[in-house]
Write a structure and sequence with these properties.
Layout (H helix, E strand, L loop, with lengths): L40 E2 L5 E3 L2 E2 H8 L3 E5 H15 L3 E6 L6 H9 L3 E4 L2 H9 L7 E3 L6 H10 L3 E4 L2 H13 L4 E8 L21 E2 L4 H11 L3 E7 L10 H21 L5 E3 L17 H18 L6 E4 L3 H4 L3 E13 L3 E6 L8 H5 L6 E2 L8 E7 L8 E9 L7 E5 L20 E5 L2 E6 L4 H7 L3
Parallel strand pairs: 4-20, 5-6, 5-13, 6-7, 7-8, 8-9, 9-10, 9-11, 11-12, 12-13, 15-17
Antiparallel strand pairs: 1-2, 2-3, 4-14, 14-15, 14-19, 16-19, 17-18, 20-21
The chain binds ligand LLP.
The site of ligand LLP has 22 residues, from helix 10 and helix 11.
């Protein structure tokens, strides 16, 4: 809404100029457990702590901006997902959400598998010690080198995304003397209710092979004829940050239908289906994500029911949550810099990071929460927009939020639920140095991805 729409100038905190957010929480000091990682609290002095460590201490030791990753929470979420799906299903963590060697170690120890979608992610998975047979390799345009590496290290599955790739993977595997297990990724024609850029199962986009016009059945025909590959299943991923299970149900039903058609045509029952990732998390107190147990229950039930109806043996099911595991486990800590109250609009609070450490707000219009964490404040709520330090007016971290009116330069504020797609999508725009990721657990903090330095930047610039 423009300034002229409110010539008299609305007073902050009593209008919501963008119309999509609500009144301030009754007490801005409360850290809602829905959006903060499990071990985050506010201590008696009013300072937020994670794993028992004060954020003020963390800022002193590691600087700002920085991502703090709650290891206990991460491990608990891994366990919740694998317990929910049980021994007859597999959980593949989607590494694109955030990947580092430490994370790979935690996943390996917690018994999860790993979905990678590039040579770089594969290299990190291997360097972190993930057994290759627990790795799934994705991507709509895998290079020859990537396929060769994936096949030669023996990844558990390659998910094929096009007709060309079926042939390429088969030829490469044959040349390397391997028979590579593969799945075919199909697009089931579901319109997921999420941002257009992260919806992937409608037909007009780059991923997968369409079910609707018989393309997927044709891809299966070709895959079954080739010696270098062993078709073990069908894959579907409908999008990301989804709360409604209806899309998954339709997708599961259509994939099972394809399995029945494959059985009828070829006399083969494929042993696996993968229903992808995409389960939403709470970025603000208004989001209500489902628990892994409920997600697993509804997916397992629908697949079993559809298989029974088609007289198919229920295949082994896998899922690929990324955001739902790592998203809620981290927050970004920033130091407040300049503060600009714009009369009648809102107060712009600048922090020492921005779109280079969190592009999601600019890219998807994503909502985030924010809180003053270095002290308690009982000042009035102030309608705020948290912005970064980049040369771009769209450099917004939190579009609409309330912060206490006595906020001052030097205060620390934190944005929760930044574990997924923030560090992994971070950039060097304006030659920003990408922040470190610090793992915290039981009173101890350890850098797992260090802060970039100017030397790192200049090392790439060969003059
Ligand atoms: N499996 C496949 C094949 C995928 O393409 C993805 C995400 C996942 C699993 C994991 O989805 P998740 O559970 O994390 O939603 N950058 C966007 C998200 C892009 C997701 C791409 N694929 C964002 O920041 O929201």
């Amino acid at each position: 809404m423009s300034r002229s729409a409110h010539p008299a100038g609305p007073r902050h905190a009593d209008v919501f100029p963008d119309g999509h957010y609500s009144a301030p929480a009754a007490d801005l000091n409360v850290l809602d457990e829905k959006v903060w990682s499990r071990t985050v609290r506010r201590n008696d002095d009013g300072v937020a702590t994670v794993a028992g460590i004060e954020v003020t201490r963390l800022a002193e030791e590691f600087g700002t901006p920085a991502y703090f990753l709650d290891e206990a929470d991460f491990r608990a979420r891994c366990r919740a997902w694998s317990d929910a799906f049980g021994p007859n299903a597999d959980v593949f963590y989607a590494g694109k959400a955030f990947l580092s060697r430490a994370v790979v170690r935690w996943l390996t120890e917690e018994g999860l598998n790993l979905d990678v979608c590039s040579g770089g992610e594969l290299a990190t998975a291997l360097a972190g010690g993930m057994p290759p047979e627990r790795i799934a390799f994705h991507g709509n345009n895998k290079s020859t080198e990537e396929i060769e590496r994936a096949v030669s290290v023996g990844v558990g599955r390659i998910v094929l995304d096009s007709f060309q790739e079926i042939v390429r993977v088969a030829h490469i595997a044959q040349r390397l003397g391997r028979r590579q297990p593969v799945q075919i990724r199909v697009t089931v024609g579901v319109e997921a209710h999420t941002h257009e850029f992260i919806a992937t199962a409608h037909e007009d986009q780059k991923f997968g092979i369409a079910l609707a016009d018989g393309q997927a059945a044709e891809a299966v025909r070709r895959a079954l004829e080739l010696d270098g590959i062993e078709l073990i299943g069908i894959h579907s991923h409908i999008g990301s940050q989804i709360f409604d299970m209806a899309g998954f149900e339709v997708s599961a039903r259509r994939v099972v239908q394809l399995l029945a058609e494959i059985r009828d045509e070829h006399g083969v029952e494929l042993p696996e289906i993968d229903l992808g990732g995409g389960l939403g998390i709470a970025y603000t107190s208004e989001d209500d994500p489902k628990e892994p147990y409920d997600i697993a229950k509804s997916l397992l039930e629908i697949v079993t029911r559809e298989c029974d109806a088609a007289r198919l043996t229920t295949p082994r099911i896998s899922v690929e949550p990324g955001r739902a595991i790592v998203g809620p486990t981290a927050f970004t800590l920033y130091e407040v810099g300049t503060i600009k109250p714009l009369e009648g609009l809102r107060t712009y609070v600048s922090v020492d990071g921005g779109m280079s450490d969190n592009i999601r707000t600019a890219l998807y219009n994503a909502d985030y929460s924010v809180a003053l964490v270095s002290r308690r404040s009982d000042a009035e709520p102030m309608l705020s927009r948290v912005v970064g330090k980049h040369c771009e007016s769209g450099d917004i971290v939190v579009r609409d939020a309330y912060l206490p009116a006595d906020l001052a330069p030097g205060d620390l504020i934190a944005v929760p639920a930044t574990g997924a797609y923030c560090r992994s999508m971070a950039s060097n725009y304006n030659h920003a140095l990408r922040p470190p990721v610090v793992a915290v657990r039981d009173g101890e903090a350890r850098v797992v991805v260090r802060r970039e330095t100017e030397e790192d930047l200049l090392r790439l610039d060969i003059g």
